Amino acid sequence: MLKVRIRVPTNAHSFSLQGLFMSAEFPEFICSTFNDLFLVLVKNEGNKQPLSPNPPDGNVAFLRTGSGTNIKKFPVGINLAGNATAQKLFAACDPQKIGCSTSPVKIECALGPETLAGTGYDKETFNGCTIGGATDWLTVAGNVVPGGIVELRLLIADVGDHAYDSTVLLDNFRWNATPGTPGGSE
Q: Cα 105 to chain center, whole Å?
């Protein structure tokens, strides 16, 4: 976990960053108890609240599907690939070299293997099959109080095992002058 306390610029109402989540648990452990996660926890200090609230648990690293009253939220993790609507976001892999054990969903790998090149999540193991995949670059946003102090906790959680690892690359942190919709998008 990386914990950062930052004074927010007086003209900023939100922030955004981009993350590329990669995991060796993909695709064999989709929809299992082995569900590594990427979280961005936001805590605005003091009694002031942002104009647009963040989720009660503070995590803004989730994907939203649906609309109106049918909105579903999915944390950024391996099990994200088990949801047909959200599956396209976890699609950097080599479709010819995945699924060496029983995989509960058919993976399309729309982004192909290029995103994984040189990351270590592109290595062949287990009879020529690749263990590893990634999301596309996801934009995550959260709301802040102008001029206040915000604490951001960026963490990767290894859930359920210690054998297969995950990582996230972070880039493009920005302050935004308008409130945002908390959560992630492509």
A: 20
